[in-house]
Amino acid sequence: MNRSPWIWPVIIFISNVSIVILAFGEFLPPVRHLISFWFLLVCPGMAYVPLLHIRDGPVEWTLAVALSLALDAIVATLMVYTGNWWTHGGLIVLMAISIGGVALQIITIGSPRGTTSMPPVEDS
Amino acid sequence: MSWNLRHIDRPVLDWSRPWSWGVIPFDLDEAKKWFQKCWPLLTITCVLLLWLTSLPNIDLRQMNDLGLVSVLPPQFFAAFFLLILSFSFLVNQQPARSWLVMLHIIVLVLMVHGTPAAVYETLRYSWAWKHVGIVDYIQRYGAVNPTDTYFDAYHNWPGFFALSALITETAGFKSAVSFANWAPVFFNLLSLGALLLIMKSLTRDQRLVWLSVWFFFLANWVGQDYFSPQALSYFLYLVTLGVCLGWFRITTSPANQGTAFLTRSKRAAPLLGKYFSFPASSDVANRQSQPLERVGLLLIVMLLMGVITFTHQLTPLMTIVSLTALVVFRRLTPRGLPLLMTILTITWLSYMASPFLSSSVETVSETTAQLFSNADATLIDISLVSPGQALVAMMGRGLTAFIGGLAILGGIRRLFCGSRDLTAVLLVISPIAPLAISSYEGEMAFRVYLFSLPFLAFFAAALLYPRWTSGVSAKTALISIILSSIMLGGYFFAYYGKERQYHFTQGEFAAAQFLYNTAPRGSLLIEGTPNYPSRFKNYEIFSYVTISREPAAGRIHLIGSPVETLSRWMSNDAYSRTYLIITRSQKAEVDALGVMPPGSLDEVEQALKQSPEFKVIFSNKDASILSNQQGEGL
Question: Are B617 and B504 in contact (CB under 8 A)?
C-alpha cells in the first residue's frame, strides 16, 4: 500500500505548530514532554528521510531518528561552543531545518520516484 | 456474508459438538485458523501479564551478592521462557511474520531493560548520575569547560551532553534525571532498527536476520546502553555501518576488479579469479536507489560520522578501523569515508580536544602497543571479589566465550554451505585493532566485544540457519530454545549481577540531594567510594576525595584509625567546609569488589558517629553525612 506523500509534511507542520505553542508558551507539562520528545527525536530527520523513498518501515524510522539526533546534537553543540545557549533559538533552527525538508518533500511530490526497497527474496 | 449462511443450515444446538452449545456457533477449523494466526499475540499478552505481575514481588532490600537475579520471582523467569518458546517457533516459520517477530524482540528489550527502570526508585548506575551532572553544568553555564578537573573528557566531547541539555530544557524538565532512567530501553530499541539495517545487508534469509538480532540482545551484557555518550555514538555507528552496507557495498568479488587487467590472459584470469573470489559474498544485492538518493544517504553518513567525532572518544576510532577494513578489502564503494573520518577525528583532537589530549598523552603512550596487557586490564581479579561477584564475572566471560564459540561454529557451517561472509568477518575482527592502542581505563576489551557483537551474533545465528533450505524442522526451533535459554541465563547473571551496588534507594538520593543543594561553594566532599548518586548537581563547585581511591597505605591507615585520620583530613583550612558521605551502595561496592576489606566502611561510619569530634548532619537508614565539630554545619 502506497503512503500518501502528504502525510509527513502535514505531521511535521502540525508538530512545528505544537512545539511553538507548548515549548515557547511553557505550559501543559505532560503534553509538552511528549511533543518535545516527538519533535526532537523524529521531526528533523523525518523531514528529509522520506525523500530517500525507503520502503522499509523500521529502516526508515531508524534513519529518521538517527538523523534527528545528529541534527539536534549539531545545533546544541554549536550553541555550547559559541557561548550562545538559548534553547528557543536552537528550537527555531531545528524548526527551520524541518520546514526546509518539508518544502523539499512538497516540491518533489508528483515527480517520478525511484525505489530503495530490497529486491524480492529468492533462494540463493 | 458466507460465514453466516453456512451457519444457518446448522442446528444451533449440535449435541455432537459440545463446544457449539453457546450462543455463538463454534467452528473448529475456523478456531484452528484463528489460533494459528493469533497465537503469537496471545503468547505476548501472557508474557506481558506475567512480567507485569512479577514486578511488585521484587523486593530490592533482599538483594544479595548475585544482584537483581537473586530477588526475581518465578513468574519473571516464566515470562522470559514463554517469550523464548514463542520467538523460537515463530522465527522458524516461513514466510516470516516480521512484525510479530519484531514485537517479540521489542518485548524482550522492554522486559530486560524496563525492569530496573520500573522497579528502582531512582536512576540506576553512578556514572549515569555523573552524566546528568554534565548536562546540569551546560544548563547552568550554556558552555563547556575543556580544562575541567574532574570530567575533562566529557567537556572535550560534549555532543551527547549538549543534546541532552537541549532535550531537558525543551521538554520542560528541571534535570535529565527525570528521563535518564529509561535510556537503556530507548537506546536498545534504537539499536534494534540499526541492527535490522545491518543484518538485512548480510543475508536475505529473514530467519537469520531476526535470530541474529535476538542473539545480539541476549549477549549484550556489557551494559553500555545507559544514559551515556557511548550509547548514542554506538547507535550512530551502527546506523553508519548499516547505510554503508545497505547501499554502498561492493557485492562482487574483490578479485573481479583487482584482476580485471588480467582478462586478456586466458590462463591467469580464471585461476586468480577463482582464488580471490573465495571470500566474496553474498546472497544480498544492494538496496536499489536513484543517484540523488545515494547522495542524500552519503550526506547522512557523513553527518553521523561528524556527530560521532564530537560525542565520544573511542567510537571514531572504531568507525575508522571498521570502514578502513571494508575499503582495504574492497567491500565498500565510497573509499574516501575512512579518510574523511580520520581527518574529522584528528581535526577534533588537534583543535577542540587539545586540552584533553595534552593531559592524557602520557597515559596513551604508556598503553600503546600493549595488546595483551590492555585486554587483561579489563578483567577483574576474581580472587579479590566476593564469591557472588566471582560467579557474576565468570558468567560474563562464559557468555562471551559461548557466543564466540557459536559464532566460530556458525561461520564454519556457513562456509561449508557456500556463503563467503568476508564483510561480516572483517567487522568481527577490525574492532580488535584499538586494543593495541589503549586500555581505555581498563574497559577496552568490553568495548571490542560490544563492537564485534552484531557480527558475532550473525555467525552464531548462522549455526541454525546457514542456508535457505536448512533449519526448517522443529528440531531447529528446539535448538534455538536451548541456546536462547542458556544465553539468557548467563545474561541475567552478567547484566543484573552488579545491581546491588548499581541501584540507589530514595534514602541515598535524598542524602546526596541534601549535600549537593546545601554544601557551600569550595567544600570538600569525602566519599567512601564514588558509587552513589554523586556529582549530578553543581559538581564543579566542590572538591572530592574518594577513600577507596587513596593509595593503599593511606587507606589502611584510615581504616585502622578513622577518627584521627579523617579528623585531620577534615580540618583542612583550604576548604570552606568538609563533609563525609557514606551510603548503602558504597558499602555494597566495597563488600562485593574487594576495593577495601569487607565491612570497613561500616566500621569507619560507626567509629565517627561515636566520636565527639564528628557530628551527624544528615542520616537515614541508607546514608549518613558527617562533618567535624569545628565546622558550623549546614
Answer: no
* CA pair distance B583, B122, nearest whole angstrom: 14
Question: What pLDDT is recorded for position B311?
Answer: 96
Residue A73, all three cell numbers: 546534537
Q: Which residue is associated with the grid cell 539499536?
A: B191
- Please provide the average confidence, as pLDDT, over all residues in chain A: 86
What is residue B27's predicted lDDT score, i.e. its pLDDT? Answer: 77
Q: Which residues contact A70 (CB under 8 A, 6 or more apart)?
A: A45, B236, B300, B303, B304, B306, B307
pLDDT value for B357: 81
| Residues B435 and B445: beta-carbon distance below 8 Å | yes
Stretches in chain B below the pLDDT threshold 50: 1-9, 11, 258-259, 261-262, 275, 633-634
| A81 band by pLDDT with thresholds 50, 70 and 90 | very high
Phi, psi for residue B614 in degrees, rounded to 5 = -125, 155
* Cβ separation B196–A67 shorter than 8 A: no
Helical segments of B329-370, H only: 337-347, 354-367
Q: Which helix (H) or strand (E) holds B101?
A: helix B98-119
Kindly list the residues from chain A whose CB atom is less than 8 angstroms away from the CB atom of residue B96: none
Assess contact for B496 and B68: CB atoms under 8 A. Answer: yes
Measured between beta carbons, the chain B residues lying within 8 angstroms of A85 are: 138, 141-143, 165
CA–CA separation, B93 vs B83, rounded Å?
Answer: 16
Report how far residue B626's alpha carbon sits from residue B607's, in angstroms, rounded to the nearest whole number: 12
Kind of pairing between the strands at B543-546 and B524-527: parallel
Cβ–Cβ < 8 Å for B592, B499: no
The neighbouring-strand residues paired with B578 are B524
Helix pair B562-570, B552-560: axis angle to 10 deg: 110
Contacting residues of A for B310, CB less than 8 Å apart: 73, 77
The rounded distance, in Å, linking the Cα atoms of B65 and A74 is 43
Q: What letter would DSSP give residue B332?
A: B
Helix locations, B259-386, DSSP H: 268-276, 291-309, 314-328, 337-347, 354-367, 371-376
8 Å CB contact between A47 and A101: yes
pTM of the model: 0.90
- How far apart are the CA of B482 and the nearest CA of chain A, in angstroms? 28
pLDDT for position B498: 92
Query: In this structure, what C-alpha cell is assigned to residue B147?
Result: 580544562
pLDDT at B36: 81
DSSP B286: P
Residue B16 is predicted with a pLDDT of 58
| H/E element, B413 | helix B387-416
Inform me whether the C-beta atom of residue B351 falls under 8 Å from chain A C-beta atoms: no
Furthest C-alpha separation in chain B: 98
User: Residue A52 and residue B297: Cβ atoms within 8 Å?
Assistant: yes
Out of A39, A65, A75, the one facing B190 most closely (by C-beta) is A65
The shortest CB-CB distance from A87 to any of B166, B193, B468 is to: B166
Instruction: Give the residue on A whose Cα is nearest the Cα of B283.
Output: A124
pLDDT in tens, B364-382: 666 555 655 555 555 667 7
Distance to chain B for A10, nearest Cα, Å: 22
A53: region left, alpha or beta (phi > 0 left; psi from -120 to 50 alpha)? left
pLDDT score at A96: 96
Report chain B residues whose CB lies below 8 A from the CB of A92: none
Phi, psi of B178 (to 5 degrees): -60, -30
Residue A52 near chain B (CB below 8 Å): yes
